Amino acid sequence: MRNTIYYCRNCGFKEELGKHYYWKCPKCGAPLDLIYDIEWRPKGLGIIRYRSMLPVQEIKYLGEGETPLIKRSIKGKSFLFKLEYLNPGGSFKDRGASLTLSYASSLGYSKVVEDTSGNTGIATTLYSRANNMQAVIVMPQYAPEGKKNLIRLLGGKIIETPTRPDAAKKVLELIDEATCYVAHTWNPLFFHANKTIAYEAYEAGFKHGTVVVPIGSGSLLLGIYKGFKDLVDLGLINTMPRIIGVQGASSAPIYELIYGKQYHGDSSIADGIMVRDPPRKHEIAEIIKKHGDIVVVNNDEIISSLKELIKMGFIVEPTSAAPLAGILKYMEDKSNVEEPILLPLTGSGLKMIDYLYSLLKKQ
Ligand SMILES: Cc1ncc(COP(=O)(O)O)c(C=O)c1O
Ligand SMILES: [Zn+2]
Q1: In order of start, what are the domains of the chain with their CATH numbers?
Q2: What is the CA 288 to chain-centroid distance, rounded?
Q3: Which of 49, 173, 341, 350 is most exposed, with minimal Cβ within 10 Å?
């Protein structure tokens, strides 16, 4: 394993990767960072193409990454849609689960637990299985049935809780010596894997412009930001793209931190970005303040973009339509959006066709 160091900015804790699995600082409980050298030597396919840019090199690869980048024009603007929903488990979460669980398995863990609104549970179960570990997924009982059934089909055990915050509490009771907690909302390994989205977009020709990112826990945003920062640091691109974050009206903590006011409204169909208190919220808000802006969308705006995406042939879930809704709303107010606009389409609609059909049929 490359010389990668767990580092806590809060208390100074440092330890080389390879001995323990940490999802947060073992000394003070703050989120951890990772420090390691990077070298631009892309070779091979998928996320393993970027081993020399990642904190872990031994990766059990199932085809994650290498997702298509498709150019479309909307309202006269040039969009690059990155089809993250074509990952093996149907979402970008496969990248983080692959890296995190390859590392956990190298340390001898036999069980994995995770709390999730759905997609991280699918990715966790898929990559637990690939790494010979048993997955237990704690999720709210109202999570989409299609997501739950896919987890069951892949061999995961589900524990249902009344709400998403209950799931976050319950999962902590399940951690023991043989069991690692993925903790995607905290875990630096999980979001460092998402750097590969930026690398792939760069290699496919995206060198400057705007990136639109849905924000729940912020693992996608943190990864994409760090990926582009690596490319700037290595001199491969000249400037950071502008980053426009998109949150849902029912749960917009990063908007609230930045603008100092509460947002009211309903975005309940975007279940993947309903995260009330992301552990890394201050870090996320700093990135947005320095490199971009944030916009908040509601159910009606999300449904209208979802219809548009499906009409264009992109079969995504409602959460994945939030960024398009967000950037269209943003462009109505402010004209300074640099093109092209890179927009990851994060999760597949194939897990919930009955639900999508009833949602869109009504419109
Ligand atoms: C489809 C989809 N898009 C976006 C997100 C938000 O990602 P993050 O929690 O990394 O901000 C999620 C998270 O569950 C998701 O499932
Ligand atoms: Zn610490």
Answers
A1: 69-89+194-361 (3.40.50.1100), 93-187 (3.40.50.1100)
A2: 16
A3: 173
Q: Are 144 and 355 in contact (CB under 8 A)?
A: yes
The answer to whether the CB of 76 falls within 8 A of the CB of 105 is: no
Q: What φ, ψ does residue 181 adopt, rounded to 5°?
A: -105, 120
In degrees, rounded to 5, the angle at the alpha carbon of residue 95 between the alpha carbons of residues 242 and 200 is 50
CA–CA dist 248, 226 (Å, integer):
23
Confidence class for position 336, pLDDT limits 50, 70, 90: confident
Distances (CA, A) of 226 to 69, 100, 182, 240: 20, 17, 20, 10
Task: Tell me which residue has its CA closest to atom 6 in ligand 1.
Answer: 216
In the predicted model, what is the mean pLDDT of residues 241-270? 96
pLDDT in tens, 69-106: 999 999 999 999 999 999 999 999 999 999 999 999 99
145-181: pLDDT as tens digits: 989 999 999 999 999 999 988 999 999 999 999 999 9
d(CA 362, CA 354): 13
CA-proximal residue: ligand 1, atom 12 (nearest): 272
Structure token pair of residue 188? 């630096």
Asked if 159 and 138 touch (Cβ cutoff 8 Å), the reply is yes
Report the C-alpha gap between 91 and 317 in whole angstroms: 10
The token pair at 104 is 């956990």
Three-point CA angle 236, 242, 248, nearest 5°: 135
Q: Environment class of residue 13 by beta-carbon count within 10 Å: exposed (0-12), middle (13-18) or buried (19+)?
A: middle
**What pLDDT is recorded for position 363?**
63
Ligand 1 first shell, C-beta below 6 A? 91, 117, 119-120, 214-220, 272-273, 317, 319-320, 346-347
